[in-house]
Write a structure and sequence with these properties.
Elements (H helix, E strand, L loop, with lengths): L1 E5 L3 E5 L11 H20 L4 E6 L2 E6 L4 H20 L4 E5 L2
Parallel strand pairs: 1-5
Antiparallel strand pairs: 1-2, 2-4, 3-4
Helix pairs in contact: 1-2
C-alpha cells in the first residue's frame, strides 16, 4: 500500500500500491504522475518554495514557503491523491499527521 502522510510543513509518500505488477501498476503510475506534476509546477513558479528527496522507497517533500500558490498546489496534489484513495482504498491511503 502507498501511504501518504501530510504534516504541517512536509509530506511523506512511501510504499507500493500492489495493484498490479511493477511497470503495470496504474495506481503507482497515477501517484507518480500527480506528485511529479505538482512538484514541477511549484518549482517552475518558485524553485525555493519546496525541497524534495527520494530515500529508499520514500519521497519526502518539505514545504519551505507558505505562500498562496504553493499551498494551493500542495492542497490540489493532496486532493487528487485522496480521490485516488477513494477509488483504490486497498492500494493508497492519505493521512494527516501531527
Amino acid at each position: 500500500m502507498i501511504l501518504v502522510i501530510k504534516k504541517k510543513n512536509n509530506i511523506s509518500i512511501k510504499g507500493h500500491a500492489f495493484y498490479s505488477d511493477y511497470g503495470k501498476d496504474i495506481v503507482c503510475s497515477s501517484v507518480s504522475s500527480i506528485v511529479t506534476t505538482s512538484i514541477n509546477g511549484i518549482i517552475s513558479i518558485d524553485k525555493d518554495a519546496i525541497s524534495y528527496k527520494m530515500k529508499n522507497d520514500e519521497m519526502l517533500i518539505e514545504i519551505k514557503k507558505n505562500d498562496k500558490i504553493t499551498l494551493k498546489l500542495i492542497d490540489n496534489m493532496i486532493e487528487l491523491l485522496e480521490k485516488l484513495s477513494k477509488d483504490y482504498p486497498k492500494n493508497i491511503q492519505v493521512k494527516e499527521g501531527e
